[in-house]
Amino acid sequence: MCEKDNIIECSLCGKETYTSKIQSENICINCAFGFNEACVKCGEYHKKEELNKDGLCSKCNMKVFKKKFKDNIDEVFECVECGREQHISNMENGLCVFCYKDEHIDRLKDDIKYLKRKVYKNV
Q1: How far is the CA of 112 from the CAs of 20, 98, 115, 118, 123, in angstroms?
Q2: What is the pLDDT of residues 35-80, one digit of tens each?
Q3: 39 DSSP 8-state letter
């Protein structure tokens, strides 16, 4: 029997996988054993580690952050990068102070490298 005949698309997460004797429905092993879960807002399946403590995927988490930020709701919110909790008013684009500073420092380092290359190229 050809292996291509045994490939299915998981009905929950959409991942292509091989069928096995364990699977009774068209779901992959990760969904069958509970390694994947659905986002509580959009319903798309993700690895459990990718969901935040409220069960939201990163896309939905960012939407919730933007809505609360726009409505000036100042409550404790989970950083979309590291998961630290901080007041929304202290966050920048869903990032806590620590992650935002790290991102900002990385951009500054890239700018410095670019400027050095440009300066030394013209010398």
Answers
A1: 54, 21, 5, 10, 17
A2: 899 999 999 999 998 888 889 998 998 898 889 888 988 888 888 8
A3: -
How many residues appear in the chain? 123
DSSP string, 79-117: -TTT--EEEGGG-BTTB-HHHHHHHHHHHHHHHHHHHHH
> Which residues make Cβ contacts (< 8 Å) with residue 21, sequence separation at least 6?
none
Q: Which amino acid is at 51?
A: L
CA 2 to chain centroid, in Å, comes to: 36
Biggest CA-to-CA distance, the chain: 69
User: Which distant-in-sequence residues (6+ apart) come within 8 Å of 54 by Cβ?
Assistant: 40, 61, 78
Contact 75, 87 (CB under 8 A): yes
Rounded Cα distance, 26 and 112, in Å: 52
Q: What's the pTM value of the predicted model, to 2 decimals?
A: 0.60
